[in-house]
Write a structure and sequence with these properties.
Elements lengths: L2 H32 L5 H15 L2 H7 L5 H9 L8 H14 L6 H15 L1 H9 L1 H22 L4 H27 L11 H13 L3 H8 L5 H10 L7 H16 L9 H14 L3 H7 L1 H23 L10
Length: about 325
């Protein structure tokens, strides 16, 4: 497979996954605020963590005067100058798909193009203003449809494998950042850890990863900090847990190279195996004791290193690759 095609498949999938995560995160955070009466400072404290996890607060500050629901929602949804906005991600995904039309199915292109045209249409703006939950659901549904259509209509060869590698790498990174939001999130004055507000915020974290129902079935309705952390990081069969995503990323990398899953043939596989081992043998008590934020930082750095090694191994001819 051409390096150009491999790179486009990898980033196409990452951008779709990133757009879906942002849509869910914004909608959950917006609905969370409806459960509490917030003053202006409290409102600000609920939106600052979103900007912190996107790691692009400088650009936001150059465009908006204050941090509130309207400005953050606009910035992460439609702002073209924000390379991680939903519109920017879907636009970038469509551009990558356009360059590899011969590699993807016509159904994949039609679904992605439909989602892109909707986001650019006046109807999207109207839905966003009048029924934001329906708007964000449509983005998430469009992303799910694209993933399903991809699996159902594309040959599961190298191109599909790069799409899967991009999806699972981005998903692991997104889950780590959503979980890390709770580290940045400040409890309102007068509230305590383990109180109603704290538990409600942890439920919101689960919802942001589409994990609430799956978690409650396994943990029988008991929402605890160790339980949520264990489920989103270490659960081996939940599709959005970090462990599940890293395991599948490692599997795709070995399928691409054709190497044994018990060894490595390039730096990307070595790094994925190293990251996989640190997750597979981790204990939730140790993670919390040593610092959840620090552990998640290590996960994010590991994923960034894997992405860089993957680009160097298979796409070294590219002068530069998109920012993670």
């Amino acid at each position: 497979m051409l390096s150009r095609v491999a790179d486009s498949c990898f980033w196409l999938s990452r951008y779709i996954e990133r757009a879906e995560t942002n849509a869910r995160l914004l909608d959950v955070n917006r609905q969370l605020l409806l459960d509490f009466e917030q003053d202006s400072d409290g409102n600000r404290n609920y939106w600052l963590p979103i900007l912190a996890t996107l790691q692009d607060q400088e650009t936001f500050n150059s465009l908006y005067d204050k941090v509130d629901a309207d400005s953050v929602l606009e910035y992460v949804t439609f702002e073209k100058k924000n390379t991680n906005s939903i519109l920017s991600c879907i636009s970038a995904a469509r551009e990558n798909a356009r360059t590899i039309r011969e590699q993807i199915s016509s159904e994949m292109w039609e679904q992605l193009n439909k989602l892109y045209l909707y986001l650019k249409s006046p109807a999207a703006r109207a839905d966003y203003q009048q029924t934001p939950s329906d708007f964000y659901y449509r983005i998430m549904e469009g992303s799910h449809l694209f993933a399903g259509i991809t699996d159902a209509t594309m040959t599961h060869g190298e191109g599909w494998m790069f799409l899967q590698a991009g999806k699972y790498l981005e998903r692991a990174d997104s889950t780590s950042r959503v979980l890390d939001i709770k580290y940045h999130l400040l409890l309102p004055r007068g509230e305590i850890v383990g109180g109603t507000v704290d538990i409600t915020q942890w439920i919101a974290v689960l919802r942001s990863c589409s994990a609430r129902e799956a978690y409650l079935k396994i943990y029988e309705g008991q929402v605890t900090v160790p339980g949520v952390v264990e489920f989103l990081i270490l659960h081996p069969s939940f599709p959005r847990s970090i462990r599940f995503s890293v395991d599948h990323l490692d599997r795709m990398l070995h399928r691409i190279s054709g190497g044994s899953p018990l060894s490595f043939t390039n730096e990307a596989e070595r790094m994925s195996g190293l990251l996989r081992s640190t997750i597979d043998y981790a204990k939730v008590e140790t993670i919390i004791e040593n610092g959840l934020h620090q552990y998640l930082d290590g996960i994010q750095l590991g994923l960034s290193d894997i992405a860089g090694a993957l680009a160097k191994t298979y796409c070294e001819w590219l002068e530069e690759t998109p920012a993670a």
